[in-house]
Amino acid sequence: MKNKIKKISIKAISICSMLCIPFIADASIESAKKAFEERNYKASYAEFMKYAQIGNPQAQYYIGLMYYQGKGVVSDIYEANAWFTLSRKGGYRNAVDMMQRLRRELPSKREAKVIGQEIESLYGEEALSVSLFPQFTSDNSLDKQLTPLEIKNPQVEDASGWALVSVTIDENGVVSNPKIFNSYPEGVFDDEVLNAASQWKFKSQQRGEHMVQVDDYIIKFEFKTTNIRSHQSYLRSLNKFTESLSARASTGDAESQYLLARLYGQGILRPKMSDKIRTSAAWLLEAAKSGHPRARYDLANRLLDGRGVQMDPVKAYVWLEMSAQDKYPPAQYVYAKEVLAGNPTKREYTEAVRMLEDAAIEGNANANQELGVLYATSIYDDFFYPFKSSLIGKDGLYTDESHPDYLMIMGAAYSAQGSSSKSSEFLSQAYSTALSRGWPTSRIMSLAQQLSVDLSADSSKPEPVIVEEAKKVIANNQQVAKLQAPKKKKLVPIDRIGPVYPENAEVEGVEGWVKLSYSVNRNGLVEDIEVLSSQPDEIFDIAAIDALKQWRYEPIIENGTTVKRTGFKVKLAFTLAERTAGN
Q1: Which conformational region is residue 463 in: left (phi greater than 0), alpha (psi within -120 to 50 degrees), or beta?
Q2: Which stretch of 93-102, 282-291, 387-396, 457-466 has the lowest confidence by average pLDDT?
Q3: Quick one: the chain helix, strand, coil %, rounded to 5?
Q4: The pLDDT of residue 475
Q5: Which 3 state secondary structure label does DSSP give 537?
Q6: Residues 186, 254, 179, CA angle at the centre, nearest 5°?
Q7: Which residue, 99, 223, 337, 566, could crosslink 519 as a Cys pair with Cβ 3.0–4.6 Å?
Q8: For all residues of the chain together, what is the average pLDDT?
Q9: Alpha carbons 154 and 163: distance in angstroms, whole number
Q10: Structure confidence at residue 479 as a pLDDT band (50, 70, 90)
Q11: Kind and range of the H or E element at 434?
């Protein structure tokens, strides 16, 4: 009986539920180990399990140890064996010793095999390769490089080495907040490269219909001395540095894993033939599994553009969500935008707003701009703050008096406060300034349409050519929307589970049907199920809902990202003739 209950509980843990686990900010393998050492086993188990379920071999080892010792969980030698097996397959050496010990202690090898196969079917590498891990495609795919418009080379002494500088690039391509990400030899070039990096300028970056700030972009500086003997000495020293870094990374240290990913991605280090992990993308995965928020965000971006991995928007969304839950500001902004664009529930909407607020506090300008529009247009009273919106707009214009996004925010704020003339004035200025900068204008036009603002109605009318262009954009957007609307509801089924005939209805010979409405979320799973009508009333409702919950579709992809869609309907029939034929 105990074994039966165990099997049922294991099967109840779906990959979907695993992917939706909330990740706590600043949590890591190290914090889980600290909790374990402090004998806070319940918290330690919960932390380790989050990482074990996404394939971290060190966490899997500790979960096995806790099952073996009965710490934080009921002692179970079969569960322990299953998790140790996964850890060993993942390359964690300590698991090998435990596996050898358990061979002598397992009461039933058959039972151990059954439990092990069930755990592996959920959290083994093969299962996670389908649902979560990227498919690697190249050994030499470097980090994405932006286009520099202005470059300043540092004046340094004649020496070999390198420095990676992390910078913020605003929507105009201007660099700010330069910081040393890593350098070698440490400290030798830091002052010079920081001064040089602050004078770089890049081509402005666009994401969808929005110009974006780029956080934590890496500028590489590499130097080679003219002294051959000195350079050879540097190479030997660098080799020792690399070996030490690799040793730390192999123990599961997330920072070392991420640093290796960036050094490979920047071409600073090149893998040896003997290296087990040979690519930047592969090290990003290891760091992401260890809970590194920035690695998770970078991995999501690689999955979106196919650098070193096969493109997979569904997996990208999962890693993006994890990074956002870890409170990494760029991920919070992008994830919140995705949620708000997909017809969110009130709970999802609230979570997205909180993420934007957190990211804005940390200095993410795009999150701040998104809040400016949202506070003036929210359908929920909890977030309708036109005054806050106007403050955001004014603060932004204080720094850049003709910034299209902040002009747009002012237009939204005045509209929310009932001043259509001022709203029209600011939105017109936003549109004309965006055109002059070569920035996208579709979002401004869409907002004007949403607010029923006539861009040609203010006292300081824009040039006629701008008004005509605006009308064309509106007309074009409307036409595109009409053409695309039918495509949004095309579904490709992966799995459709038939309903289980209610026993009482079958015995009594009752037939009928249930008509339901439902949504398909970004992972292709069914949710928001409602019974529209049924015949007879309520007899088959629960069976129909239970069946529909198990349906799965290919995720709906629009503009390179997965989206949630609502309004689907289905009618499930319950007929004894089909029931008899099925038996």
Answers
A1: beta
A2: 457-466
A3: 55, 15, 30
A4: 52
A5: coil
A6: 40
A7: 566
A8: 84
A9: 11
A10: low
A11: helix 420-437
Count of C-beta atoms within a 10 Å radius of residue 128: 18
Instruction: Please say if the pLDDT value at position 343 is more than 70.
Output: yes
Instruction: Give dist(CA 74, CA 83) in Å, integer.
Output: 15
> 27 by DSSP, 3-state: which?
coil
Question: In terms of DSSP bridges, do strands 493-495 and 512-520 run parallel, antiparallel, or are they unpaired?
Answer: unpaired
- Identical fold between 2-131 and 490-582: no
Nearest to 28, CA basis, from 252, 302, 318: 252
**What is the dotted CATH code of the domain comprising 364-486?**
1.25.40
- Whole-number Cα distances in Å, 263 to 182, 278, 352: 9, 12, 33
Rounded CA-CA distance 315/565 in Å is: 18
| 527/519 Cα distance (integer angstroms) | 5
* pLDDT tens sequence across 39-77: 999 999 999 999 999 999 999 999 999 999 999 899 999
CATH of the domain spanning 148-294: 3.30.2420.10
Q: Is the pTM of this model over 0.85?
A: no
Q: Taking the domains of the chain in order of start, what are their residue ranges? A: 2-131, 148-294, 364-486, 490-582
Tokens of 262: 């960036």
Nearest to 123, CA basis, from 18, 252, 3: 18
DSSP letters, 229-288, are HHHHHHHHHHHHHHHHHHHHHHTT-HHHHHHHHHHHHTTSS---TT-S--SHHHHHHHHH
Distance CA 167, CA 165 (A): 6
Cβ(473)–Cβ(514) under 8 Å? no
Q: Concatenated DSSP letters for 25-93?
A: TT--HHHHHHHHHTT-HHHHHHHHHHHHTTT-HHHHHHHHHHHHHTSSS---HHHHHHHHHHHHHTT-T
Per-residue pLDDT of 382-435, as tens digits, reads 999 999 999 999 999 998 999 999 999 999 999 998 888 899 999 999 999 999
Instruction: Return the closest-CA partner of residue 408 out of 428, 436, 378.
Output: 428
3-state secondary structure 380-422: CHHHCCHHHHHHHHHHHHHHCCCCHHHHHHHHHHHHHCCCHHH
State the CATH architecture for 490-582.
Answer: 2-Layer Sandwich (3.30)
The pLDDT of residue 139 is 64
What is the CA angle 17-531-580, rounded to 5? 90
Beta carbons of 225 and 231 less than 8 angstroms apart: yes
- Bridge partners of 557, per DSSP, are 562
389-422 as b/e: b if 16+ CB within 10 A: bbebbeebbeeeeebbbbbbbbbbbbbbeeebeb
Tell me the β-bridge partners of 483: none
DSSP-derived letter for residue 489 is G
Tokens of 497: 């589970």
Give the CATH class of 2-131: mainly alpha
Neighbours of 17 (CB within 10 A): 10
d(CA 452, CA 1): 66
CB 288 within 8 A of CB 321: no
Residues 46, 24: Cα–Cα separation, whole Å = 11
